[in-house]
Amino acid sequence: MTKYETLKELSLNHNGYLLTKEVEKAEISRPYMQRFVEENRYEKVAQGVYISSDTLPDQMYILQLLNKSAVYTGESALYLHGLMDHEPKQMMVAVKRGYNASHLKKKGVRSYYLKEELFNEGIDEADTVYGNRVRVFDIDRTICDAIVHKDEMDIQTYSNAIRSYMSRSDKNIHKLMKYARQLGIEKKVRDYTEVML
């Protein structure tokens, strides 16, 4: 495979995104990559991230590419799971305690620091509106997180999310209660489920 074909394949593998660090792993020089980017009219959308001319920038996916260990949570997770009908004003991610997220704060991203055992519970993947896969807490964990952070949310958004979740066929009440126990909100969650089921 030629260098040009390799770059095309790397871009195809990421839905039109080309990542400098993957190009370097493929042992292709930066000057060659730069020539490819210019000749094929790729646009730089972030440090080390380029998109093809027929690809729309997907901010959630770009953030994920630059922060592989982050997991979408809060309103971002509600939106990814279809439990919120409008894009959140601010992206929200969870990171492991000890992770330096100062660069995320500068970009206006809200970060929640979690202990490793809580961070690793319920990690899933979902498609953004552009069809790119990102890491997100599963729908049941997302509802528990919404209950934990209820006071930080718009009451209408919160109520709609709970109602939408309770009406879905893919909800898993057993998992919901497991997460509720781990997060110390079992009574609150039990009260919600008794009223709404």
Describe this structure in words.
This protein is α+β, with helices and mostly antiparallel strands and 197 residues long. Helix content is 49%, strand content 16%. It is built from 11 helices and 8 strands. The protein has helices at residues 3-13, 20-25, 30-39, 59-66, 74-80, 102-106, 116-119, 139-148, 155-167, 173-183, 186-196; strands spanning 17-19, 43-46, 49-51, 71-72, 92-96, 110-114, 123-127, 133-137. The strands form 3 sheets. The protein has a 3-stranded antiparallel β-sheet with strand order 1-3-2. A 3-stranded mixed β-sheet has the order 4-5-6. A two-stranded antiparallel sheet has the order 7-8. Helix 6 links the parallel strand 5 (92-96) and strand 6 (110-114). Helix 8 (139-148) runs antiparallel to helix 9, helix 8 (139-148) packs parallel to helix 10 and helix 10 (173-183) packs antiparallel against helix 11. The longest helix has 13 residues, at 155-167. It starts with a helix and ends with a helix. The mean pLDDT is 93.
